[in-house]
Amino acid sequence: MKLVKTGILPLDTQLGGGMPAGSVVSVFEEPGAGADVLSYHFTVEGAKQGENVFYLATDDSSEEIREYINLYFDLDEAVWENITLLSLNTSVLSEEGEKDAKDFLKKTIYDPIGGIKTILSHEEFERVVFNNFTYFLVNYPIEDVISLIDVLSNYAKKNQSVVMLLVTKGMFDSRTETTLKHYSDGVIELTLREVENEVQRRLKVVKFKGILVPKAILRYELTDKGIKMESVMRVL
Under the phi-then-psi rule, with left for phi > 0, alpha for psi from -120 to 50, and beta for the rest, what region is 200? Predict the structure, then answer.
């Protein structure tokens, strides 16, 4: 079975080498837990290996995402050539329109789900990131969201890719959250906990098809190099 590395060595070790190819992985985070930084590690790991990566941003401009990634990794232009950035942020459409290499990328902003399906039908990506999938849960009926996940799942299996969906915890009722977890192949939760005089961040793998799910909860910090995760497991 092909495994796709996350770019965070202790996490890959706990997963038995990485995430199974052909998976849709939902990352549920409490605000501030750093799911975006996890997605940067995942993106950069693929791009540095010469893989084709598609990164969809719903809240930030493509230029902002590029700046955020470079803040931690400072990639050279050759690596950026492997990353296709697309923003659905309408406020930056005019300034970004000329920068997009493909015409159908520009049209996606008016019909996000239709545009994404078009992009995926034209391109083969080893890694796909939605930052943030909450956008679709807010703006579309749950039936449309499930249909999109089905498309992403078929795409991942066909291309032996991993699709990562970032989701903000606590914004939806438990039924919606459970539905999304049900249709995902893998589920990871990032949480914050205040302990004495510091904030601790923790990662828990809830489920993963195709591999043994680690029972430990992993602690990590956000640093100038991205996520620094303890290599020793903690069973909490």
Answer: beta
